[in-house]
Amino acid sequence: MTASIEALFPTEIPAAYRIVPTSNPPISLIDGRVEVWQGEGVPVWSRVATSGPQGLEPQLLGHQAPLGETQATQAVEAAERAWDDGFGPWPRASVEERCAAVARFAARINENTERIAHLLMFEIGKPLSAARGEVTRSVEYIHATIEELRRLEAAATQPFTGLKGSTVHHAREARLPLGKVLCVAPFNYPVNELLTTVVPALLMGNVVLAKTPRFGVLANMVLAEAFAECFPAGAISLLPGNGRTVIPPLIGALGRGGRAAIDMLAFIGSERAANAILQQHPSPISLHKVLGLGSKNFAVLLPGADPEQVAARVVKGALGFNGQRCTAEKLFCVPQAEALAFAQALGTAVAELTIGMPWQDPTISPLPETEKLRWMQAYIDDACELGARIVNPGGGAGCFSLMRPAVLFPVDPRMRIFGEEQFGPLVPIAPYDSLEQVCRWQRESPFGQQVGIWGPAADMADAVRQLRPLVARVNLNDVCQRGPDSFGFTATDKSGFGVLSLGAALLTFSRPVLVQSTDPVLLERGLAGC
């Protein structure tokens, strides 16, 4: 099986998709200037490899700038100047001025869709259509967020009243920026997840320092020139490099008056990394934050659910982008009576998934992390030693960066795969005896993002009633997901903190300010020009 997977790697990259390394030099964006690193850059290698006389050889894509404390300090100082206690040119710009700048930025992204998508293919192994989709969805998200801000601004111009005793108070509420925001994005959606925090933060008038993810850095650096052209100096910095080197001097920096320089952290990644960052902030109690962390989303089949129909629906939810999605279904809970039939149906559905190079648009594509196959094999070995088996033929076989997904059945709480987030192409199935048992599993889990419930409509209510208090989103006969973007994306327990998605994100990156008076004429005069 390993040999057959190795044969999926090409002897050469098709001409239409080749990346010229010199076209991706080591750059950064600090204080409005895109600068090439003066020195040796860090090579950026692809896990998409070619087969040659020496075996599989990864492709060199370009170089990233190995930024350190000096550059991080420069970025913080530029952000301080741009913010200027809320009186800098960007925080003082009107809503329409900010919307226009962000719209120009969106147009520049759109012009570079193919270049960004091709880099995503090679940097993180994302299939071409999904890579294009990440870029186009990001542009659509930006335009939708602009329209949402205009709607919120229109609503804010409407005065409202309140009574204190017999006295009528007249008021208007505005949303103002929080300050300097540090945004840290994950590798699985390196462009989209960066922009879903950076864009609402900028639209609300904040100044942003954006740390690129460890994979996907070159795709994000394509945005550097557009950022520099569309926003004032210091309003946005784009910083590559090793996160353990770059992030500590950012989050730990002191600004004017000895106050913490960073006012908000927008982080998507692991709980361990988030805790390490938060502990380095000079004043954690004053730090605003929105965090997207790990998850272990259950897909719960109720008695009477059709195993084959559900398997056909959920297979790509569980294994889209190789299962490297926080919203992926990561544990299937199935009634004992239907468990074997569902395992066989899901194994058949997984066996039909395509596997190959990203430009071929397969379901299963190369994994960006060098140790991922070893980590996945450790989960498989542990589960099989404790009584599980691989249901689908060839499941778990891998070579270099490609791995055929494995459906594991039966899984129980003794196994690591039952409680830990695999974030990869493994699909565990746990038989259950009662819905109360499933609810106990969810209560004992440290995660609380989403759950999917599958079954007859007449039987949904009890499952919803028992599982809804334990998660942030319940999906009925539908896969776990982030969208639509108009829905609030959030979590509970150790899966996250705060709310993103369109209007919710704009509120997250701003604070309310109320102006009131018992004299409505005075109120309007006092707000003239604001």
Write the layout of secondary structure elements.
Blueprint: H1 2-6, E1 27-30, E2 33-36, E3 42-52, E4 55-64, H2 69-83, H3 95-111, H4 113-124, H5 128-156, E5 160-164, E6 167-177, E7 180-184, H6 192-203, E8 207-211, H7 217-221, H8 224-230, E9 236-239, H9 243-251, E10 264-268, H10 271-278, E11 288-292, E12 297-301, H11 307-319, E13 329-335, H12 336-351, H13 372-385, E14 389-390, E15 398-399, E16 402-403, E17 406-409, H14 416-419, E18 426-432, H15 435-444, E19 447-448, E20 450-454, H16 460-467, E21 473-476, E22 492-493, E23 496-497, H17 503-508, E24 510-517, H18 520-526
Parallel strand pairs: 7-8, 7-10, 8-9, 10-11, 12-13, 12-20, 13-18, 17-18, 20-21
Antiparallel strand pairs: 1-2, 3-4, 5-6, 6-24, 11-23, 14-17, 15-16, 19-22
List keywords for this structure.
alpha/beta; Aldehyde Dehydrogenase, Chain A, domain 1; 2 domains; seven-stranded mixed beta sheet; six-stranded mixed beta sheet; 18 helices; 37% helix
Structural features, described:
By secondary structure, this protein is α/β, with parallel strands linked by helices. The chain folds into two domains: 7-292, 3-Layer(aba) Sandwich (Aldehyde Dehydrogenase, Chain A, domain 1); 297-476, Aldehyde Dehydrogenase, Chain A, domain 2 (3-Layer(aba) Sandwich). The protein contains 18 helices and 24 strands. The strands form seven sheets. It has a seven-stranded mixed beta sheet, sandwiched between helices. Strand 5 and strand 6 (167-177) form a beta hairpin. Helix 2 (69-83) runs parallel beside helix 9 and helix 3 (95-111) packs antiparallel against helix 8 (224-230). The longest helix is centred in the first third of the chain and has 29 residues, at 128-156. The protein starts with a helix and ends with a helix. The relative contact order is 0.13.
